[in-house]
Design brief:
With 650 residues, the protein is of the alpha/beta class. The radius of gyration is 24 Å and the shape is globular. It binds 5'-O-[(S)-butoxy(hydroxy)phosphoryl]adenosine.
Amino acid sequence: MPSNYITSILKENRIFYPPKNFSKNAHIKNMREYEKLYRRSIKNPEAFWAERASQLDWFKKWKTVLRNNKGFFKWFEHGQLNAAYNCLDRNIKKNKDKTALIWEPESGKNKTYTYEQLLKEVCKFANVLKNHGIRKSHVVEIYLPMIPELPIAMLACARIGAIHSVVFGGYSSDALKDRIQDSKAELLITADGSFRNGKIYPLKDNADKAVKECQTIKKVIVVKRSSKKIKMKKGRDYWYHKLINEKHIKDFCEPESMGSEDPLFILYTSGTTGKPKGILHTQAGYLLYVYQTFKWIFDIKDKDIYFCTADIGWITGHSYIVYGPLSIAATVIIYEGSPLYPEPDRFWRIIDKYKATIFYTAPTAIRALAKEGDSWPKKCSLSSLRLLGTVGEPINPEAWLWYYKVIGKKKCPIVDTWWQTETGGILISPLPGATPLKPGSATKPFFGIEPDILKEDGSKTKTDEGGYLVVRKPWPGMLRTVWRNPGKYKKKYFDKFGVYLTGDNAKIDKDGYFWIMGRTDDVIKVAGHRIGSAEVESSLVSHKAVAEAAVVPYPHKIKGNAIYAFIVLKKGNTKSEELKETLRKHVSQHIGPIAKPEKIQFADDLPKTRSGKIMRRILKAIAQGSSEYGNIAALADPSVVQKLQKEKIR
Ligand code: WT7
């Protein structure tokens, strides 16, 4: 299992209590309240969730809370509702003129939408989609940057019952192609470009390349975002702004009545095999879960201005920019662009500009911005902030303390939220008005969630002993299946222990606090992004110079982990720095810049068992600069190890 290097950089044993005035006004005010409700929720999760379900607007009430259909879980069956209706229409009654979205583009020329305006935009685009033949249960692929049209397109799909599948705008054309081919989407929504660091990223060119190999895509709708000249294919490509302004497009679109277990969206994520998995989330359970977690974990109040820096292309954006915040009528800031543009104080300036009260980001961003020095945040006031959050990877106490002192001025609790694409919403996290914080720990489970840590044989670990993090009971926000691959759902998540397997390594301390220590599988978390080592390996091997490749994580100061690739070249190729650069570019084009190997070591041979299996644990130890690679006697040629060790890239 991976070692807990991140939390060992600095031991911080202090406990940080919630400020008194924060607790006084919080939804959950102290640990007694938390524990009482938690016990009740675990004793009878169905009763707990049935009680909470009345917070959503239903067209028809459900009959059964939970049903286990041969290992596939169904929540709130026979209920009918619409997610977009819950995010928009029902908020209009009280919050018609409340700001729903504040969009900050890199240029700073912002745009805002009230709930009423957002509803109208969503309805218009829903009507456009219908006009182009999209109906309930059709799949729509969305490949857009962080612009308002992204949440609008998602909600428009939800409104008519189409299933959206958003692909992160930083992915390459190949990655987009793989996802479209698996989802079998009929329509693609993209833009002529996106902005990052003042440069334009060619989304439409990528989309064109991808669509060439995707027969299912009949139409492409293109948002005009930049001045980039692009080709529009007649009969296939349409401009978003033209369609939406056509005379016959009405301002209202009736929301489709959806069954609780009808699909809401597919989101692809990396796993242990080469191909990404389509994680399926459904209507009612997902929406209820993100609504409830958003309300209590972010302690949301009517006046809050909430800023989440995640891209909507990841689950964090789906759950805690779009569905969670909008279903509770919050005001959300979305930012398109780099945290360093034009200078490393962009986030802090955005907080001041809009008087943001809640800020949610990733540890990698905190580390990168802390590195730029305190002078940047110190030039800003940041006095509007009352709560901070982190997500995506373990946060080291050093970064936690910087965030707490320099950004939160010691008055903002930090919610370190642990969850996954598969879990739909946050499962382990402090409740900011109640939970005493230990830097580096995601603390305690949310209501209705029963996590545990198991040994290989399925027995429980002892206090402070690392093991497999599992979740014993189903919860409403959990994935329902892997798209078009139910066998994989069972195999990957339930076969090992019969309860939900997270893929993370964790421990519980004497106070019942959870410490997440990294992955137990071949998934690598690079700057909070989830990358499958097999995906990077197959990309490397697809290059003509490469015979074999193995990639492993190694600790990185800013990114948490970075990718270390061991590569055996085909005969006739010369080991050179140029070739390394070529291979980095190759992966970048194939998957996306986030998957580039930071370090590449050319090797003559890799450590293999006699049956030819590459022993990653040994490569991991070498990449991490450790000589504890365990037993090497099983290797076909043990001398390989010493050689690799000698040539290690520092
Ligand atoms: C993996 C899931 C959750 C939304 C974004 C990532 C790691 C996530 C934490 C945290 C330690 C964390 C885990 C998990 N992770 N949050 N607070 N502390 N590790 O979603 O891409 O599906 O990745 O991210 O390893 O399994 P994802």
